[in-house]
Write a structure and sequence with these properties.
Layout lengths: L8 E5 L6 H10 L4 E3 H9 L3 H8 L1 H16 L5 E3 L8 H10 E7 L2 H8 L13 H15 L2 E4 L5 H13 L2
Parallel strand pairs: 1-3, 1-4, 2-3, 4-5
Helix pairs in contact: 1-8, 2-4, 3-4, 4-5
Bound molecules: shikimate-3-phosphate.
Length: 170
């Protein structure tokens, strides 16, 4: 496979389960350096995301997330996989937009419900209606996005192709 190089970063945002990690892995396979903010947070805290929420609460997690986002945004020409709530803070969005394009991945509620129904690793889903949380976040996602790619029925390779084309033309 031909390796690609970019001048700016690609920051993947979107709701849990939309496929950010899969697309992130695919873009890394194509030769891009990458940072996954949740993995960086887990490294910083020395524990899984669910444990950070349980022991220290969401505000602490969000503080670590801002640090992780800023670190990731300092990369050049890489791909950043952002946790689903990373766009809730304006400063995170600004950091991502300063050094790259913010790409929103979307999927229908049906697709997401199917992917997330048995998930017990995501603390924000506990006791919550997925559709309600999606609705609450819609404005934040749409406000942050500079490029939007619908993922339903597409392969990771197709999605990456669309992203790269859109970034090239932006
Ligand atoms: C969260 C999404 C998760 C993770 C944390 C909080 C959210 O990331 O950052 O559990 O608030 O949407 P993924 O979107 O990668 O699951």
């Amino acid at each position: 496979m031909e390796k690609i190089q970019l001048e700016q970063n690609i920051a993947l945002i979107g709701f849990m389960g939309v496929g950010k990690t899969t697309v992130y892995e695919e873009l890394k396979q194509m030769g891009l350096p990458g940072v996954d903010t949740d993995s960086l947070i887990e490294e910083m805290a020395g524990m899984p995301v669910s444990e950070i929420f349980a022991q220290f609460g969401e505000p602490h997690f969000r503080d670590l997330e801002t640090q992780a986002v800023c670190k990731a945004a300092a990369m050049q020409g890489g791909v950043i996989s952002c946790g689903g709530g990373a766009v809730l803070r304006r400063e995170n969005v600004e950091a991502l937009q300063r050094t790259g394009k913010v790409v929103l991945l979307t999927a229908t509620p049906e697709t997401l419900l199917e992917r997330l129904q048995d998930d017990d690793t995501r603390p924000k889903l506990r006791g919550r209606k997925i559709t309600q949380l999606m609705e609450e976040r819609r404005a934040a996602y749409e406000g942050a996005a500079q490029i939007t790619v619908a993922t339903d029925g597409k392969t990771p390779a197709q999605i990456c192709g669309e992203i790269l084309e859109a970034v090239k033309n932006s």
